[in-house]
Amino acid sequence: MKSFKRKIILSLLLIAGVSSCSKNTQDSDLALNTINAEEIKTDGTFEVMELPAPPYVQSAVGNRAAKKVVVNLEVIEEVGELANGVEYNFWTFNGTVPGTFIRARVGDEIELHLKNRDDSNFPHNIDLHAVNGPGGGAEATFVAPGKEAVFTFKALHAGLYVYHCAAAPVGMHIANGMYGLILIEPEGGLPPVDKEFYIMQGDFYTKGAYGEKGLQEFDINKAIAEQPDYVVFNGNTGALMGDNELQVKVGETVRLFVGNGGPNLTSSFHVIGEIFDKVYTEGGTTIMENVQTTSIPAGGAAIVEFKADVPGDYVLVDHAIFRAFHKGALGKIKVSGEENPNIFYEHKTKDQKL
Amino acid sequence: MKFIVIGFIFIISSCTPNISKQDSYKISKKTTYIYTNKNMVKIDGGTYEGFIGQDSGKLVKVKPFYMDDSPVTNEEFLDFLKKNPQWTKSNVSRLYADIDYLKNWPSDFEFPKDVSPNSPVTNISWFAANAYAKSVGKRLPTVDEWEFVALADATTKDASKKPEFSDAILKSYQRKDTYKTSIKLEQPNFYGVYDMYGKVWEWTEDFNSVMMSGESRNDSSKNEDLFCAGAAVTTSDLHNYAAFVRYAMRGSLKANYNVNNLGFRCAKDL
Amino acid sequence: MLKIYDMKNLFIYLMIAFIAMACNQKDEHLTNVSSESIFQLNSEWENQEGEFIKLSDLKGNTLVMVMIYTSCKTACPRLTGEMREIEKKLGNYNENKIKLVLVSIDPKVDTPETMKKYLNDNDFNGDQWLFLRSDEASTREFANVLSVKYKQISPIDFSHSNIISVFSDQGVLTYQKEGLTVDTSEVVNEINKLLNNS
User: Fold this and answer.
1) Which residues of A touch B260 (CB under 8 A)?
2) I want to staple A143 with a disulfide (CB 3.0 to 4.6 A). Which of A147, B90, C21, C44 is the partner?
3) Is the ipTM beyond the 0.85 threshold?
């Protein structure tokens, strides 16, 4: 009888031990993935990636197997709106600033096609921070107007990475809007959320002052002095305002993929009225919790997550606050739904009641 | 006797090659010389500060030479093609031009409808530009010669120290469809040479002496793997973005490329 | 019954016929050349023996070509070393079917004597080794066909791309090895493929 009891106790201990161990392995799963990524075999199928325009992204990778994915990027030089009545000669990937979001998983073989549309004036290329290889792809993809280059790379590291043009003079190519984000999801994918959006901050340098109407020229002196006239999300002061506000419902979990194309400034990213439940700091795999404002360096990114609890307008800003109110670093998330007086309740004063 | 004559004729006719359209260029490979009344300007030569690489900051010597006062036009190139059909769109050798050669020309002897006859000819490869230059008894300018002439603005020989000069050029580079309009619409420079900016990129004899790998961050240190002997793309003039984009363009080209906004002009020794 | 008069005429007609056929055969030779072949180039090249050839004279040989200059101190010795390594890795190959060609980007300095000495110093013996030079314009033209970039940076120094190019025996470019850090195994495979097919 004694030995039987002992066996039961031992086995219960064992079970308890094993179950707590497996919990630990879940947390370090992400780290383990990067070690074995080179050996992940693709399943033999290939898929041409969808190319939604920002602020939208492709659907989650989930727990699909690694495969070959084909990404088609086209460089388009086009005049567009920077602010109301203000036009700028943007250089873009696929016609948007930022360029199309790229989404894949660790172990995927990504075949990247870079075409320079034949009405371009200049040669361009691409450097993806997710690439392990010379120049991040820049050497392989230097294309004159009308030409196309292709290269394939294996995604070895999970994380959110910047991509940008690296053709000379690099500063000008980036300053004109040639940047975007590429997300490499870990095996099994990121935990699911209700809404995902793609936002990228950039600083713009124009000959004219902020708000001066008409077609504005790139100002190299201001760029060298790091004194932008515009600091905006998604290439336009109005990209996430008015009709373009991001729509979310009360109770939904929201994930923002936030990048900073620079070329110069670091962003102090904050959502007024919200706290980030999770921040994947610097776009890597370590998670910080309960963060108010996160620093996103030029050429860097971060993933932020929160749950929308209370309806209302939530303003996205670069908390280096003069940029928000004098240079355009503003966006809005509109949360609609039932009031939640447990979390936020505005008291009516005696005057208001009357 | 009759049989011998018939036999002779038979032998000759069976040996005469079938000159198909495909083969015709192979047989008439020789350049036929043509006449052009394009004006040339005498450039006195001198020195200028090299922009990149080993020349960066050093004084580069340019000997006196003649420069075409404007890019070669569609009309002028058509004259060349009429006498040198081996260079038409359907006959050109793949070695000398890729599939984009004269791609906007509806047929071998017709230039595009939406461009002026006096607009610069584009979508021609370096080999084609060279062949044209040869046919008119000229050659392509070297990078140094071209850059030397490009130092001038309307009033001075060397405007490179004026900051507004580089800015104005960079601005002109961003205009679209400039290759569709006629040459000589704007003021000539100090030498009387037109369209050095804001019209088309131009082939040069030694464009392939620009060793930019496309990886421009690395280019500032010696890339000894791809290029022998210190092909550093450093520059003394970091402000001169206009020159940067020009050299980047040269670095991105191969001689058989044909680009919408890339044309050429000719030069000649004294 | 043939009279002497007829014999004379017959002789003349036959001579003309043969001449005509011979002329046509020259064109036959050209019409076999593909639109991508370097044998279309008209340039004249002088080899290490001081003999003048055209590239089309190399027809029928798989070609392995590199552009260097003899006074180079940095990468060219490595490029030359790679050519040696490639030849070694080819093992027992048919010397009559391949030409390993060094092309000078410094024709002023690389005279036939200099070129011959360079080949000797490197133990590149045999008819399969060739060193060629031409005039400046033809050199620039050939470099452009290979997408080789080069620039004279001092009276004795050139910057240039480090590229080894492989051509089929019809003169069509089939493979290029760019850079010095890449292994020679792949280029040797490509050459062997061509040698086995020719």
Assistant:
1) 118-119, 145-146
2) A147
3) no
